[in-house]
Structure formats: structure tokens, C-alpha cells
Automatic annotation (TrEMBL):
GO cellular component: membrane
Chief location: membrane
SUPFAM superfamilies in the cross-refs: MFS general substrate transporter
Protein name: Vesicular glutamate transporter 1-like
Superkingdom classification of source: Eukaryota
Biological processes per GO annotation: monoatomic anion transport
Keywords from the named record: Membrane, Symport, Transmembrane, Transmembrane helix, Transport
Molecular functions (GO terms): symporter activity
Membrane topology: Multi-pass membrane protein
Location in the cell: Membrane
Organism in which the protein naturally occurs: Diabrotica virgifera virgifera
Transmembrane segments: 81-109, 129-155, 167-186
Entries under InterPro entries matching the protein: MFS_Na/Anion_cotransporter (IPR050382), MFS_trans_sf (IPR036259)
Length: 203
């Protein structure tokens, strides 16, 4: 389930990183320089919000306000569900760049909650193998780095307009929401038995 959750997060990340600047330049009408600068804003806000989310998560866990399971699954709302909804809402903004930038920026900002969900879950499952787990999920999730531009290119191959781009944003939103819901229903935060194998062998 962690693989699925991380895949959804990286899909949204690469959509913002690779496809949104192209959309801003070719459809909304910004120059490449302007589109690049505006495209950096959501990632800056994601970094700031991610730091804040980390502090919030530490407080909730340290003071036993919420269990690790409750923290992981409730913050899926911020890391996946709401960004997915906002991604779909982009199609209703047309070329109105102000609300468009606000939506995209807020979508990435609250996705900073990923520090409490898919980025933290490897530590829950197997602290002794967290690095290996993260390497595996990043390898699988990294496939979105070529899937997103390939699918976007297929959508806009014949005509590069708002209608065609709407398919890209709807798909991105659905991937966000779908992967988040799957983890909420089936994801685990329990330490896995095989995490103790190394400790047992050492004794």
C-alpha cells in the first residue's frame, strides 16, 4: 500500500514539476521564463509547509494527541485528497492565471503533509530497513517521471488546448485521490515482523 501511496504523491509532484510550466507557457500565455518562475512557487511553499507539518506531527505524537496510525491516515487528507480535488478544480479556471496560480500553489503547499504520510511510513513499517524500503518505493514511484509527460503528450498530441489539458489534470487529481483512499482503507503503520530479523541474527 505504501508503494501505491508514494506513486500517487510522485505523480502529482511530477505533474507540477514537468507539465504545469508547459501548460502555463503554451495555454495560459506566459513566457517560458515567467512560467518557470511561477512554477517554482508551489515547490517553495511545499518546502515551508512540509517543515511546519513535521513539527505538528512531532507535537501530536510526543504529547500522545494522536496515535501514529491516526496521524498517517488523517494527514492523507492534506497530502493526497485535497491536492487531488484542487487539481481537478484547475480545469474550471481556464486561463484566469491568478486563481490558477493560487490553486496550484495551495495544492502543492498542503501536499507538504507527505512528510507525515508516505515519506514517514517506511519508519513505521521497518525502522531497520527504512532506507531500503524508501529506495524501492522511490524506484517504483520514479516511473511517474516519464509516465506523466508521456501521457500528457498523448493527450495534447493533436490539439494543445484547455480541453485536452483538462484530461491531464483530471487524471492527476484522480490518481492523488485514489491512491490516498486505498492507503486509508488498507495501509498499515504496524511494525512488520521481518524488521526484527537483523536483531535476532545478531543475538
Amino acid at each position: 500500500m505504501l508503494n501505491i501511496l508514494h506513486f500517487g504523491n510522485l505523480w502529482g509532484l511530477y505533474l507540477q514539476l514537468q507539465s504545469v510550466p508547459k501548460f502555463m507557457a503554451e495555454v495560459v500565455g506566459f513566457s517560458l521564463k515567467e512560467a518557470g518562475a511561477l512554477g517554482a512557487l508551489p515547490h517553495l511553499m511545499r518546502m515551508i509547509f512540509g517543515t511546519a507539518y513535521g513539527s505538528i506531527g512531532d507535537y501530536l505524537k510526543k504529547n500522545k494527541v494522536m496515535s501514529p496510525k491516526a496521524i498517517r491516515k488523517s494527514f492523507i487528507l492534506a497530502s493526497h485528497i485535497i491536492p487531488g480535488i484542487l487539481m481537478i478544480c484547475v480545469i474550471f479556471m481556464g486561463c484566469n492565471w491568478v486563481p490558477l496560480i493560487i490553486l496550484l500553489t495551495f495544492s502543492m503547499a498542503i501536499n507538504g503533509a507527505a512528510v507525515l504520510t508516505n515519506l514517514q511510513n517506511p519508519q513505521d513499517l521497518a525502522p531497520n530497513f527504512a532506507g531500503s524500503i524508501f529506495g524501492i518505493i522511490s524506484c517504483i514511484g520514479g516511473t511517474t517521471g516519464f509516465l506523466v509527460p508521456a501521457i500528457t503528450g498523448a493527450f495534447i498530441q493533436k490539439h494543445n488546448g484547455l480541453k485536452e489539458w483538462s484530461y491531464t489534470f483530471i487524471l492527476g487529481g484522480c490518481v492523488y485521490i485514489g491512491t490516498g483512499i486505498i492507503f486509508i482503507l488498507f495501509g498499515s503503520v504496524e511494525e512488520q515482523p521481518w524488521n526484527r530479523i537483523a536483531d535476532t541474527e545478531n543475538h
